[in-house]
Specification:
The protein has 268 residues and is an alpha/beta fold. The chain has nine helices and twelve strands. The radius of gyration is 20 Å and the shape is elongated.
Length: 268
């Protein structure tokens, strides 16, 4: 636990002894009265908490001193075909740890339809995985999670989100290139590396903390159909490869996000 996160309602209240965070502070981190620990408010400020009182088997009292607005999420949206539930857990945790802004889980034509009804999403476990990844990264901001029946529904929602974003962004930020990438190891138009380098060569002279924005689409286990490839192309996506090896959905998502964030200039 690299940061202990609280909701805005919890931050000023004693932490119950049987809360998992309290147990981690006492049993794993061996914190005592007078010790401090990294803390933050979900979707809010990050800072230091000071343990002011420990009532064993009852509660932990602490004060909180904010120090920053928290680590920003990067302008990377990830469209991902529903993977197996066990893969989904790891995928969401890793993507949150890397700092993507949003995850759009979607059904695909070749994907297993039963995954769409995973109880991971219904019971909040998917959000918990995102929260776990956020804690691992020492961050306070959790990526948004969206669920869609198919790629068309997903794209419609994404287009609405992009329209709303443009309406509130300053002109300088709107001028940053926005790349749309669909990973495809069967019928790619170019490599991911070549596509990014061809589209960011003239974008190094702005004052923003990143060189471009990106939306990346990754299919489910059996990839995209020709119909989906055509739809993605009409939606402005370029099909890119990451070499000849076939990766699991979770691996492809993590590798692609890492490559894109590196070119974005946020991993320096």
């Amino acid at each position: 636990m690299n940061i202990c996160l609280f909701t805005s309602e919890e931050i000023g209240k004693p932490l119950p002894w049987n809360d998992g965070r309290a147990q981690h502070l006492i049993k794993i981190l061996h914190k005592k009265q007078g010790d401090s620990f990294a803390a933050g408010i979900v979707e809010g400020q990050a800072g230091k908490a000071l343990i002011t009182k420990i009532s064993e088997k009852s509660f932990i009292e602490f004060s909180f001193e904010p120090e920053s607005s928290g680590k920003i999420l990067y302008p990377l949206n990830m469209i991902i075909g529903f993977p197996r539930p066990i893969q989904l857990k790891r995928l969401l945790r890793d993507i949150a740890g890397l700092g993507a802004s949003a995850v759009y889980l979607t059904g695909t034509e070749l994907g297993e339809k039963s995954y769409l009804h995973s109880t991971l999403v219904e019971r909040g476990a998917a959000y918990q995985m995102l929260l776990d990844g956020t804690v691992q990264a020492g961050s306070t901001h959790v990526p948004e999670l969206f669920i869609h029946k198919n790629l068309a529904e997903c794209m419609e929602n994404l287009n609405h989100a992009e329209y709303a974003e443009k309406s509130v962004q300053p002109s300088q930020e709107q001028a940053v290139p926005s790349l749309k990438i669909a990973l495809d190891n069967i019928n790619a138009q170019c490599s991911l590396k070549d596509f990014i380098e061809a589209n960011i060569s003239q974008t190094g002279n702005n004052n923003l903390p990143y060189r471009f924005k990106a939306t990346t689409a990754i299919g489910s286990e059996r990839g995209w159909t020709d119909k989906e490839r055509s739809f993605l192309e009409k939606s402005g996506f370029t099909r890119c490869s990451m070499g000849s090896r076939i990766l699991r959905t979770e691996s492809a998502a993590t590798v692609a996000a890492s490559i894109i964030l590196n070119y974005m200039g946020v991993l320096n």
